[in-house]
Amino acid sequence: MLLRGLTWLVLFQLLGTAINVLFLTLLPGPIIGMLLLFAFLVVRGEVGAPIAEASSGLLRYLPLLLVPPAVGVMVYAEQIAADFWALAGALGLSLIVSLLFAGWLMQKLIDRQARREERP
Amino acid sequence: MSLDWHAALQAVVHHPLFGVGITLAVYQAALAAYERTRWMFLQPVLVSMAVLIGVLLLAGLTYQEYRDSTFLLSVLLGPTTVALAVPLFLNLKRIRQLFWPTLVTLLFAGVLATALGVALAWAFGADRMMLMTMAPKSVTSPIAMLVAEQIGGVAALAAVFVLITGVLGAMCGPELLRRIGVHHPAAQGMALGLTAHAVGTARALQEGEESGAFAALAMSLMGMLTAVLLPLVVVLVA
Lengths: 120, 238
Prior knowledge:
heterodimer, A: 6 helices, flat, B: 238 residues, mainly alpha
């Protein structure tokens, strides 16, 4: 089951890579693969057991898979130090503003929809 | 007969599996530390990264050699990105009745989260490479790293920005949202997932089931939208 699901995932990724080279050089291959799998699931209307098993197995270890690329930050220590305050300020400020904006907007829209449903 | 300790150490350190070995060991230790303390600053990826950099410096290994010896792990990142379609599909079924609020919030807040980060970093004087790395900071790391590389940023740095954003958002997000009167669980989840991706989603799940589902949904949609639109926007602007 796990191997069958993994085969599907790899197949979609390879398909994505082919499409990336052929038509869509802007989008990374794995992302195209994700969109293809998503379209496939929508068409089928359900997630088959093999794909469900393989994807939950892989996604459980996603943080581990991200560690090696994250270590790459050691190569850029100087650039980070040079721009440290600009980066820290931009990250912190934009996070707080957009987080509050997203929550506020969603809340307003939900309230409005609820009011509209009350009076038909 | 004297044993050649130095040669043995060198053989171990430069073995093609050394990278995988230390990564697995350090990650599990970091995970255990996080689970025991539940302290938001102890994000396993962040801690593993710091410890591994220390180990590599001590062992005298370059990042290039480490990356080659962790190929077993990094080659799985592609299929795992593809697998993100599954939770996105599962969550999509849950939002039928809040479809329009979700879509509108996603578009406006998503654009704001991306544009404001880049604009502020630019205003504070960061260089172009840093701006391109900053742009995908609100999406989950595999997508952010892929996108950053695609548009001329640095994948490794993008992962760090993503983590910092996530940890900050998860730490102070719920409290700030309550202060400004955002009390609907879907709205709280949406805000957390949209801006603080996986870490925010984990936090939203602690707040409740509905909040968690919307956070997961917001995270996947934001990731997908960024992956599709950001490279296009960068090409058009530049």
